[in-house]
Amino acid sequence: MAEAGPGEKLSPADYRAVMRAFFRALDADAGLPASADQPDACSALIRAILSSVAVSASPAPRVSCTITVSPTVTNQYNTLHGGAVAALAEAVGMACARVAAGDKEMFLGELSTAYLAAARCDSEVDVEAQILRKGRSVVVTTIEFRLKDSKKLCYTSRATFYIMPLASL
């Protein structure tokens, strides 16, 4: 492999070799563990941290649950991982959308999350989803994550679910 000096270009083969060496140095070429290769491994991880779930359909659809932040869903700062927050927001938001729209087929179209404060490992977080708007083809939910002991708002999400149209054959 030829080294390129400033202003020189590498050949495509040399560039690929440099990139492979870079990713090997990061250990990014290592395979995923077998547990991550199972279907729906993420949902099982999310279900494992849920403690209790309450669903109310009236006056407005609402889903509430409590999660315990375990070491399996924390980041390097020992706080709830951002990906876990997004996965929880999608799951709880979908549950709330299903309460409002029934058993219709739907999919997540948009998810936005504001990370306002951190939830530390072993803390309990109350998660509550409610309907912001329900239409014929769309359901918008808002999801709030609050620390159980102080009621401090940690994360807030808005999820838009699109209802699949019925096929006309």
TrEMBL record:
Pfam families tied to this protein: 4HBT
Entry's Gene Ontology molecular function annotations: fatty acyl-CoA hydrolase activity
Domain Thioesterase stretches: 77-154
Keywords attached to this entry: Hydrolase
Entry's family note: Belongs to the thioesterase PaaI family.
Protein known as: Thioesterase domain-containing protein
